[in-house]
Amino acid sequence: MENEKKEKNLSLRGLNKKVEEFIDETRETNRQVLELLKAQSEPSVLSVTDGDISVDTNKGTVTVTPTVTPTVTTSKQIHHTETLEYQPKQMLQQEYQRIFEEYFDINDGFEAEMDFSDKITFTVMVPQKFSNATSAHWDFYKSDKRMVALPQGNISGGIQDWCDKVCKNIHYNKNDVKK
Length: 179
Hints:
Strands 1-2-3-4 form a four-stranded antiparallel beta sheet, with helices on one face. A three-stranded antiparallel beta sheet has the order 5-6-7. Helices cover 41% and strands 19% of the residues. Strand 1 and strand 2 (52-56) form a beta hairpin. It has two domains: 2-84, no CATH class; 94-170, no CATH class. Helix 2 (94-103) packs parallel to helix 4 (155-170). It is elongated and about 75 Å long. The longest helix has 40 residues, at 2-41. The chain contains four helices and seven strands. By secondary structure, the chain is an alpha+beta fold.
């Protein structure tokens, strides 16, 4: 009986240590994100408070907010939440928006965005009305996002090819009156 109590105390201490390590790793990751943001956008205003990181640039606001709330109980459960937000979404350049609108009618609810953070990615958000994703997909993800990494030498061609593939996959024709 006494051995069991010692084992529980040791395992709770171990869990607490792991939670503390996780929090330290999260803070280090956030510090690295902040350094990257500073290097990429040369912020005009920078403030760091209690683990919250805010960067205000001429382009918009980027907020990284880690919220780690560990809870250790006798049933050995650990709960944590982590929130990372990146705002605003990258607007499409006029040339890329024109290509997107050749294939999709924005009045039907289609949206597109590009991300330049790691690779150049292009995402088409398909409205549920036109989506062929399963109901399980919609229940879990709450959206139908079709993303592709674009070739660096031919971004326009990559967007055009991806829009064509998405249209064919969902059997969508912008000019079809039966929408």
